[in-house]
Amino acid sequence: QVQLVESGGGLVLAGGSLRLSCAASGGTLNWHAMGWFRQAPGKEREFVAGISWSWTGSRTLYEDSVKGRFTISRDNAKNTVYLQMNSLKPEDTAVYYCAASRSGSGPKVGEMEYNYWGQGTQVTVSS
What we know:
Layout (H helix, E strand, L loop, with lengths): L2 E5 L2 E4 L4 E8 L8 E6 L6 E6 L8 E3 L7 E6 L4 E6 L8 E7 L15 E2 L3 E6 L1
Parallel strand pairs: 2-11
Antiparallel strand pairs: 1-3, 3-8, 4-5, 4-9, 5-6, 7-8, 9-10, 9-11
């Protein structure tokens, strides 16, 4: 069973950058579509970015509010998925979760399409 561990969260000033990492253990991320979600206080968890599986070139998809600022990528050799977050805003403050689907097709947007979840990492953007 794939286990996911996020890291890289923290406190940053508005306009700053963070890179989140999602490392897998207990299995490979090959053939798994991956995603990042976030949950702000008092709000439901929402899709942020997703990436499909491919040997030659994965497809990506972003939630509208992060387009042009966030980049999802994967390093298959390192069994790790990343979320590069630039030009951060206070409204990006949330717990960020990494998720893996048993299917490689995608990108996938819905929470129900993912089978494995990390424990989350806090991102706080101060103004």
